Amino acid sequence: MTISVRFAPSPTGYLHVGNVRTALVNFLFTRKAGGRFLLRIDDTDTGRSRPEYVHALEEDMRWLGLIWDDYKKQSDRFDAYEMARQKLMAAGRLYPCYETPEELEMRRKMQAGRGLPPIYDRAALQLSQIQKEKYAKEGRKPHYRFLLEDKPIVWYDLIRGEVRFEGAHVSDPVLVREDGVPLYTLASVVDDTEMGITHIIRGEDHVSNTAVQMQIFTALGAVAPQFGHLALLKSSEGELSKRVGGNDIRSLRDAGIEPMAINNLLAKLGTSDPVEAFPDMQSLIEAFDIKKFGRATANYDVHELERLNGKLLHKLPFTAVKERLPFADEHFWLSVRANIKTLAEVKTWSDIVHGETGKYGNAEHTEYLAKALSLLPSGNWDETSWGIWTQSVSADTGRKGKELFLPLRLALTGLEHGPEMKFLLPLIGREKTLQRLKK
Description:
The chain is of the alpha/beta class. It folds into four domains: 4-73 and 187-231, Rossmann fold, CATH 3.40.50; 80-176, Glutamyl-tRNA Synthetase, domain 3 (Alpha-Beta Complex); 238-321, Orthogonal Bundle (Glutamyl-tRNA Synthetase, domain 2), CATH 1.10.1160; 356-438, Orthogonal Bundle (Arc Repressor Mutant, subunit A), CATH 1.10.10.350. The protein contains 18 helices and 13 strands. A three-stranded parallel beta sheet has the order 1-2-3. A three-stranded antiparallel beta sheet has the order 4-5-8. Mean pLDDT is 92; it is low at 238-245.
Protein backbone atom coordinates (compact mmCIF):
# COMPACT_ATOMS: atom_id res chain seq x y z
CA MET A 1 0.00 0.00 0.00
CA THR A 2 1.29 3.45 -0.94
CA ILE A 3 0.75 5.85 1.94
CA SER A 4 -1.25 8.87 0.85
CA VAL A 5 -1.95 11.90 3.04
CA ARG A 6 -3.48 15.31 2.55
CA PHE A 7 -3.35 18.82 3.95
CA ALA A 8 -6.69 20.56 3.51
CA PRO A 9 -6.58 24.22 4.61
CA SER A 10 -9.44 26.68 4.28
CA PRO A 11 -8.35 29.82 2.39
CA THR A 12 -9.97 32.23 4.86
CA GLY A 13 -6.72 33.69 6.19
CA TYR A 14 -2.96 33.30 6.12
CA LEU A 15 -1.23 30.09 7.16
CA HIS A 16 -0.16 30.15 10.80
CA VAL A 17 2.23 27.95 12.75
CA GLY A 18 -0.62 25.75 14.03
CA ASN A 19 -1.83 24.53 10.67
CA VAL A 20 1.66 24.58 9.15
CA ARG A 21 2.68 22.10 11.86
CA THR A 22 -0.12 19.81 10.67
CA ALA A 23 1.04 20.17 7.06
CA LEU A 24 4.66 19.53 8.05
CA VAL A 25 3.87 16.39 10.08
CA ASN A 26 1.85 14.99 7.17
CA PHE A 27 4.66 15.84 4.76
CA LEU A 28 7.37 14.22 6.89
CA PHE A 29 5.20 11.17 7.58
CA THR A 30 4.56 10.40 3.93
CA ARG A 31 8.06 11.32 2.72
CA LYS A 32 9.57 8.94 5.29
CA ALA A 33 7.41 6.18 3.81
CA GLY A 34 7.94 7.18 0.19
CA GLY A 35 4.26 8.15 -0.13
CA ARG A 36 2.12 10.86 -1.67
CA PHE A 37 1.31 14.35 -0.32
CA LEU A 38 -1.88 16.03 -1.53
CA LEU A 39 -2.71 19.72 -1.08
CA ARG A 40 -6.49 20.09 -1.09
CA ILE A 41 -8.03 23.53 -0.81
CA ASP A 42 -11.19 23.48 1.34
CA ASP A 43 -12.96 26.36 -0.41
CA THR A 44 -16.58 25.17 -0.44
CA ASP A 45 -17.49 28.19 1.70
CA THR A 46 -17.37 30.62 -1.20
CA GLY A 47 -18.51 33.50 1.02
CA ARG A 48 -15.38 33.36 3.19
CA SER A 49 -12.79 31.80 0.87
CA ARG A 50 -10.57 34.30 -0.93
CA PRO A 51 -8.36 33.66 -4.00
CA GLU A 52 -5.59 35.84 -2.55
CA TYR A 53 -5.40 33.51 0.45
CA VAL A 54 -5.15 30.50 -1.86
CA HIS A 55 -2.23 32.13 -3.64
CA ALA A 56 -0.62 33.10 -0.32
CA LEU A 57 -0.83 29.62 1.23
CA GLU A 58 0.61 28.01 -1.92
CA GLU A 59 3.47 30.52 -1.85
CA ASP A 60 4.08 29.96 1.87
CA MET A 61 4.16 26.19 1.48
CA ARG A 62 6.65 26.39 -1.37
CA TRP A 63 8.80 28.74 0.73
CA LEU A 64 8.76 26.21 3.57
CA GLY A 65 9.69 23.37 1.21
CA LEU A 66 6.37 21.54 1.62
CA ILE A 67 5.99 20.59 -2.02
CA TRP A 68 2.85 18.65 -2.89
CA ASP A 69 2.50 15.76 -5.34
CA ASP A 70 -1.11 16.48 -6.25
CA TYR A 71 -3.47 19.43 -5.95
CA LYS A 72 -7.27 19.71 -5.72
CA LYS A 73 -9.88 22.35 -4.98
CA GLN A 74 -13.09 21.29 -3.29
CA SER A 75 -15.01 24.04 -5.12
CA ASP A 76 -14.47 21.98 -8.29
CA ARG A 77 -16.20 18.94 -6.80
CA PHE A 78 -19.76 19.97 -5.90
CA ASP A 79 -21.16 17.29 -8.25
CA ALA A 80 -19.39 14.56 -6.26
CA TYR A 81 -20.80 15.91 -2.99
CA GLU A 82 -24.31 16.05 -4.47
CA MET A 83 -24.07 12.40 -5.50
CA ALA A 84 -23.00 11.48 -1.95
CA ARG A 85 -25.93 13.48 -0.54
CA GLN A 86 -28.39 11.62 -2.72
CA LYS A 87 -26.86 8.25 -1.79
CA LEU A 88 -27.18 9.00 1.94
CA MET A 89 -30.75 10.25 1.45
CA ALA A 90 -31.72 7.08 -0.40
CA ALA A 91 -30.21 4.98 2.41
CA GLY A 92 -32.21 6.88 5.02
CA ARG A 93 -29.05 8.26 6.65
CA LEU A 94 -29.56 11.92 5.74
CA TYR A 95 -32.72 13.79 6.74
CA PRO A 96 -34.01 17.35 6.29
CA CYS A 97 -34.35 19.66 9.30
CA TYR A 98 -36.11 23.03 9.39
CA GLU A 99 -35.17 24.56 12.75
CA THR A 100 -33.77 28.06 12.74
CA PRO A 101 -30.56 28.86 14.65
CA GLU A 102 -32.67 30.67 17.26
CA GLU A 103 -34.91 27.65 17.79
CA LEU A 104 -31.92 25.34 18.14
CA GLU A 105 -30.30 27.67 20.66
CA MET A 106 -33.49 27.76 22.72
CA ARG A 107 -33.60 23.94 22.78
CA ARG A 108 -29.95 23.77 23.88
CA LYS A 109 -30.68 26.12 26.76
CA MET A 110 -33.68 24.03 27.80
CA GLN A 111 -31.57 20.86 27.72
CA ALA A 112 -28.84 22.52 29.74
CA GLY A 113 -31.42 23.65 32.29
CA ARG A 114 -32.56 20.05 32.71
CA GLY A 115 -28.98 18.79 32.99
CA LEU A 116 -29.08 17.05 29.62
CA PRO A 117 -26.27 17.03 27.02
CA PRO A 118 -26.82 19.44 24.09
CA ILE A 119 -27.61 16.71 21.57
CA TYR A 120 -30.06 17.26 18.74
CA ASP A 121 -33.35 15.57 19.66
CA ARG A 122 -34.14 14.39 16.12
CA ALA A 123 -37.46 16.23 16.14
CA ALA A 124 -37.22 16.60 12.36
CA LEU A 125 -37.66 12.83 11.97
CA GLN A 126 -41.19 13.20 13.35
CA LEU A 127 -42.28 15.84 10.83
CA SER A 128 -45.15 14.88 8.56
CA GLN A 129 -45.19 15.66 4.85
CA ILE A 130 -47.83 18.31 5.53
CA GLN A 131 -45.55 20.04 8.07
CA LYS A 132 -42.65 19.97 5.63
CA GLU A 133 -44.82 21.51 2.92
CA LYS A 134 -45.95 24.18 5.37
CA TYR A 135 -42.32 25.08 6.15
CA ALA A 136 -41.59 25.24 2.42
CA LYS A 137 -44.48 27.69 1.88
CA GLU A 138 -43.07 29.83 4.70
CA GLY A 139 -39.80 30.02 2.78
CA ARG A 140 -37.84 27.79 5.12
CA LYS A 141 -35.14 25.77 3.42
CA PRO A 142 -33.95 22.60 5.13
CA HIS A 143 -30.46 21.77 6.27
CA TYR A 144 -29.56 18.09 6.33
CA ARG A 145 -28.33 16.00 9.26
CA PHE A 146 -26.63 12.62 9.22
CA LEU A 147 -28.44 9.93 11.21
CA LEU A 148 -25.87 8.33 13.49
CA GLU A 149 -26.25 4.71 14.48
CA ASP A 150 -26.61 4.04 18.18
CA LYS A 151 -23.47 1.94 18.58
CA PRO A 152 -19.89 2.41 19.74
CA ILE A 153 -17.51 4.26 17.42
CA VAL A 154 -13.98 2.96 17.93
CA TRP A 155 -10.67 3.46 16.15
CA TYR A 156 -6.99 3.08 16.93
CA ASP A 157 -5.39 6.50 16.74
CA LEU A 158 -1.76 6.82 15.63
CA ILE A 159 -1.12 9.22 18.53
CA ARG A 160 -3.91 8.77 21.08
CA GLY A 161 -4.22 4.99 20.99
CA GLU A 162 -7.75 3.53 21.22
CA VAL A 163 -10.46 6.19 20.97
CA ARG A 164 -14.07 5.34 21.77
CA PHE A 165 -17.32 7.28 21.36
CA GLU A 166 -20.86 6.11 22.07
CA GLY A 167 -23.10 6.91 19.12
CA ALA A 168 -25.99 7.72 21.46
CA HIS A 169 -23.95 10.50 23.05
CA VAL A 170 -23.05 12.25 19.79
CA SER A 171 -25.34 14.72 18.06
CA ASP A 172 -26.39 14.06 14.47
CA PRO A 173 -24.10 16.41 12.50
CA VAL A 174 -25.29 18.84 9.85
CA LEU A 175 -23.75 17.78 6.52
CA VAL A 176 -25.49 20.16 4.10
CA ARG A 177 -26.43 23.79 4.76
CA GLU A 178 -29.74 25.47 3.88
CA ASP A 179 -28.16 26.88 0.70
CA GLY A 180 -27.18 23.38 -0.45
CA VAL A 181 -23.45 23.80 0.28
CA PRO A 182 -21.90 20.65 1.80
CA LEU A 183 -19.97 21.12 5.01
CA TYR A 184 -16.42 19.94 5.66
CA THR A 185 -17.65 16.83 7.49
CA LEU A 186 -19.19 15.40 4.31
CA ALA A 187 -16.92 16.89 1.63
CA SER A 188 -13.80 15.64 3.38
CA VAL A 189 -15.06 12.05 3.55
CA VAL A 190 -16.04 12.06 -0.14
CA ASP A 191 -12.65 13.45 -1.15
CA ASP A 192 -10.62 11.20 1.13
CA THR A 193 -12.41 8.19 -0.31
CA GLU A 194 -12.14 9.12 -3.99
CA MET A 195 -8.56 10.43 -3.68
CA GLY A 196 -7.24 7.30 -1.99
CA ILE A 197 -6.16 8.92 1.28
CA THR A 198 -4.79 6.21 3.57
CA HIS A 199 -3.86 8.28 6.65
CA ILE A 200 -5.37 11.46 8.10
CA ILE A 201 -3.20 13.37 10.56
CA ARG A 202 -4.79 16.51 11.99
CA GLY A 203 -5.34 18.45 15.21
CA GLU A 204 -7.08 16.95 18.22
CA ASP A 205 -9.88 19.51 17.78
CA HIS A 206 -11.09 17.18 15.00
CA VAL A 207 -11.53 14.11 17.22
CA SER A 208 -15.31 14.56 17.44
CA ASN A 209 -15.44 15.09 13.66
CA THR A 210 -13.61 11.80 13.21
CA ALA A 211 -16.20 10.03 15.35
CA VAL A 212 -19.04 10.97 13.03
CA GLN A 213 -16.96 10.64 9.87
CA MET A 214 -16.19 7.03 10.72
CA GLN A 215 -19.89 6.25 10.27
CA ILE A 216 -20.14 8.41 7.13
CA PHE A 217 -17.33 6.42 5.51
CA THR A 218 -19.23 3.20 6.25
CA ALA A 219 -22.56 4.63 5.05
CA LEU A 220 -20.94 5.54 1.73
CA GLY A 221 -19.52 2.03 1.38
CA ALA A 222 -15.90 3.11 2.00
CA VAL A 223 -13.15 1.97 4.34
CA ALA A 224 -12.03 4.71 6.71
CA PRO A 225 -8.34 5.76 6.62
CA GLN A 226 -6.14 5.54 9.69
CA PHE A 227 -6.31 8.61 11.91
CA GLY A 228 -3.83 10.47 14.07
CA HIS A 229 -4.72 13.51 16.16
CA LEU A 230 -1.98 15.91 17.18
CA ALA A 231 -2.17 17.83 20.46
CA LEU A 232 -2.76 21.50 19.76
CA LEU A 233 -0.07 24.13 20.15
CA LYS A 234 -0.23 26.78 22.85
CA SER A 235 1.53 30.11 22.99
CA SER A 236 1.66 32.94 25.51
CA GLU A 237 -1.52 34.26 23.86
CA GLY A 238 -3.31 30.94 24.40
CA GLU A 239 -4.51 28.52 21.76
CA LEU A 240 -3.09 29.43 18.37
CA SER A 241 -5.36 30.59 15.59
CA LYS A 242 -5.11 32.45 12.32
CA ARG A 243 -5.91 35.65 14.15
CA VAL A 244 -3.09 35.66 16.71
CA GLY A 245 -0.76 38.35 15.40
CA GLY A 246 2.82 37.45 14.58
CA ASN A 247 2.23 33.71 14.28
CA ASP A 248 1.26 33.60 10.61
CA ILE A 249 3.99 32.49 8.24
CA ARG A 250 3.97 35.78 6.34
CA SER A 251 4.74 37.76 9.49
CA LEU A 252 7.53 35.38 10.46
CA ARG A 253 9.05 35.56 7.00
CA ASP A 254 8.88 39.37 7.03
CA ALA A 255 10.59 39.30 10.43
CA GLY A 256 13.54 37.45 8.89
CA ILE A 257 12.81 33.93 10.16
CA GLU A 258 14.27 31.21 7.94
CA PRO A 259 11.96 28.44 6.63
CA MET A 260 14.13 25.68 8.11
CA ALA A 261 14.00 27.35 11.53
CA ILE A 262 10.20 27.07 11.41
CA ASN A 263 10.38 23.47 10.15
CA ASN A 264 12.95 22.45 12.76
CA LEU A 265 10.89 23.81 15.65
CA LEU A 266 7.44 22.63 14.53
CA ALA A 267 8.68 19.13 13.63
CA LYS A 268 9.79 18.53 17.22
CA LEU A 269 7.11 20.31 19.26
CA GLY A 270 5.10 17.65 21.09
CA THR A 271 7.87 15.05 20.92
CA SER A 272 10.64 14.10 23.32
CA ASP A 273 13.28 14.90 20.69
CA PRO A 274 15.52 17.94 21.20
CA VAL A 275 15.05 20.79 18.75
CA GLU A 276 18.06 20.95 16.47
CA ALA A 277 19.13 23.34 13.72
CA PHE A 278 19.01 20.89 10.81
CA PRO A 279 20.09 22.61 7.57
CA ASP A 280 17.69 20.77 5.25
CA MET A 281 14.38 18.92 5.11
CA GLN A 282 15.98 15.54 4.42
CA SER A 283 17.49 15.51 7.91
CA LEU A 284 14.02 16.02 9.42
CA ILE A 285 12.54 13.28 7.23
CA GLU A 286 15.16 10.77 8.35
CA ALA A 287 14.59 11.58 12.04
CA PHE A 288 10.76 11.54 11.85
CA ASP A 289 8.63 9.01 13.72
CA ILE A 290 4.91 9.60 14.36
CA LYS A 291 5.17 7.46 17.52
CA LYS A 292 7.28 10.17 19.17
CA PHE A 293 4.33 12.55 19.41
CA GLY A 294 2.59 12.62 22.78
CA ARG A 295 -0.83 13.80 23.93
CA ALA A 296 0.40 16.70 26.06
CA THR A 297 -0.13 20.24 24.78
CA ALA A 298 2.97 21.54 23.04
CA ASN A 299 4.19 25.05 23.83
CA TYR A 300 5.13 27.30 20.94
CA ASP A 301 7.51 30.12 21.89
CA VAL A 302 8.42 32.69 19.24
CA HIS A 303 11.55 33.59 21.23
CA GLU A 304 12.72 29.99 20.95
CA LEU A 305 12.10 30.26 17.21
CA GLU A 306 14.28 33.38 17.07
CA ARG A 307 17.10 31.66 18.97
CA LEU A 308 16.86 28.65 16.66
CA ASN A 309 16.94 30.96 13.67
CA GLY A 310 20.24 32.39 14.90
CA LYS A 311 21.73 28.92 15.42
CA LEU A 312 20.74 27.95 11.89
CA LEU A 313 22.30 31.07 10.36
CA HIS A 314 25.51 30.59 12.35
CA LYS A 315 26.08 27.30 10.52
CA LEU A 316 25.20 28.36 6.98
CA PRO A 317 27.96 28.65 4.37
CA PHE A 318 28.04 31.76 2.22
CA THR A 319 26.78 29.80 -0.79
CA ALA A 320 23.44 29.28 1.04
CA VAL A 321 22.82 33.03 1.47
CA LYS A 322 24.81 34.58 -1.37
CA GLU A 323 21.83 35.39 -3.58
CA ARG A 324 20.10 37.23 -0.74
CA LEU A 325 23.21 39.24 0.22
CA PRO A 326 24.36 40.98 -3.00
CA PHE A 327 26.14 43.63 -0.92
CA ALA A 328 28.33 41.13 0.97
CA ASP A 329 31.17 38.75 0.20
CA GLU A 330 32.15 35.50 1.90
CA HIS A 331 34.68 37.15 4.20
CA PHE A 332 32.10 39.64 5.46
CA TRP A 333 29.51 36.86 5.99
CA LEU A 334 31.92 34.70 7.98
CA SER A 335 32.84 37.75 10.07
CA VAL A 336 29.30 38.63 11.18
CA ARG A 337 27.19 35.44 10.99
CA ALA A 338 27.97 34.29 14.55
CA ASN A 339 26.28 37.41 15.98
CA ILE A 340 23.05 37.64 14.02
CA LYS A 341 19.55 36.31 14.63
CA THR A 342 18.12 37.22 11.22
CA LEU A 343 19.63 37.77 7.79
CA ALA A 344 18.43 41.38 7.81
CA GLU A 345 21.01 42.14 10.50
CA VAL A 346 23.78 41.53 7.96
CA LYS A 347 22.64 44.65 6.12
CA THR A 348 22.75 46.58 9.40
CA TRP A 349 26.37 45.59 9.94
CA SER A 350 27.22 46.28 6.32
CA ASP A 351 25.88 49.80 6.76
CA ILE A 352 27.89 50.24 9.96
CA VAL A 353 31.11 48.98 8.40
CA HIS A 354 30.85 50.55 4.95
CA GLY A 355 28.49 53.46 5.53
CA GLU A 356 29.16 57.12 6.10
CA THR A 357 31.29 57.81 9.14
CA GLY A 358 29.04 58.79 12.00
CA LYS A 359 29.74 60.40 15.35
CA TYR A 360 29.75 57.59 17.91
CA GLY A 361 30.84 57.23 21.52
CA ASN A 362 30.47 59.64 24.47
CA ALA A 363 32.20 62.91 25.32
CA GLU A 364 33.42 61.43 28.59
CA HIS A 365 35.78 59.16 26.65
CA THR A 366 37.38 61.95 24.57
CA GLU A 367 40.75 61.87 26.31
CA TYR A 368 40.90 58.09 26.27
CA LEU A 369 39.99 57.89 22.57
CA ALA A 370 42.62 60.48 21.71
CA LYS A 371 45.22 58.30 23.39
CA ALA A 372 43.89 55.21 21.55
CA LEU A 373 44.07 57.15 18.29
CA SER A 374 47.74 57.85 18.80
CA LEU A 375 48.45 54.15 19.31
CA LEU A 376 46.73 52.81 16.17
CA PRO A 377 48.87 50.12 14.51
CA SER A 378 50.32 50.91 11.11
CA GLY A 379 50.54 48.77 7.99
CA ASN A 380 47.87 46.42 6.61
CA TRP A 381 45.30 45.33 9.14
CA ASP A 382 44.14 41.77 9.69
CA GLU A 383 42.48 39.80 12.49
CA THR A 384 45.51 40.30 14.77
CA SER A 385 45.38 44.10 14.56
CA TRP A 386 42.66 44.53 17.20
CA GLY A 387 44.65 42.51 19.74
CA ILE A 388 47.87 44.41 19.00
CA TRP A 389 46.09 47.76 19.31
CA THR A 390 44.21 47.03 22.54
CA GLN A 391 47.33 45.59 24.18
CA SER A 392 49.16 48.84 23.44
CA VAL A 393 46.24 50.93 24.74
CA SER A 394 45.99 48.81 27.89
CA ALA A 395 49.73 49.10 28.57
CA ASP A 396 49.58 52.89 28.16
CA THR A 397 46.34 53.61 30.05
CA GLY A 398 46.12 50.72 32.50
CA ARG A 399 42.59 49.96 31.39
CA LYS A 400 41.30 46.40 31.18
CA GLY A 401 38.08 44.56 30.35
CA LYS A 402 35.01 46.69 29.64
CA GLU A 403 36.81 49.94 30.42
CA LEU A 404 39.31 49.10 27.70
CA PHE A 405 37.09 47.64 24.98
CA LEU A 406 33.63 49.24 25.28
CA PRO A 407 34.56 52.88 24.51
CA LEU A 408 36.46 51.71 21.43
CA ARG A 409 33.54 49.57 20.21
CA LEU A 410 31.10 52.45 20.77
CA ALA A 411 33.35 54.89 18.94
CA LEU A 412 33.71 52.62 15.93
CA THR A 413 30.24 51.01 15.64
CA GLY A 414 27.87 52.99 17.87
CA LEU A 415 26.76 49.77 19.54
CA GLU A 416 27.77 47.96 22.73
CA HIS A 417 27.48 44.52 21.16
CA GLY A 418 27.99 42.73 17.88
CA PRO A 419 30.53 40.66 15.97
CA GLU A 420 34.02 40.37 17.38
CA MET A 421 36.02 43.54 16.87
CA LYS A 422 38.98 41.54 15.60
CA PHE A 423 36.80 40.82 12.54
CA LEU A 424 35.19 44.25 12.27
CA LEU A 425 38.30 46.40 12.62
CA PRO A 426 39.97 45.32 9.34
CA LEU A 427 36.57 45.59 7.59
CA ILE A 428 36.11 49.16 8.81
CA GLY A 429 39.67 49.96 7.75
CA ARG A 430 42.27 52.41 9.00
CA GLU A 431 40.84 55.51 7.31
CA LYS A 432 37.33 55.18 8.74
CA THR A 433 38.76 54.19 12.12
CA LEU A 434 40.77 57.42 12.20
CA GLN A 435 37.74 59.49 11.22
CA ARG A 436 35.46 57.90 13.81
CA LEU A 437 37.98 58.24 16.62
CA LYS A 438 38.57 61.89 15.76
CA LYS A 439 34.82 62.61 15.75
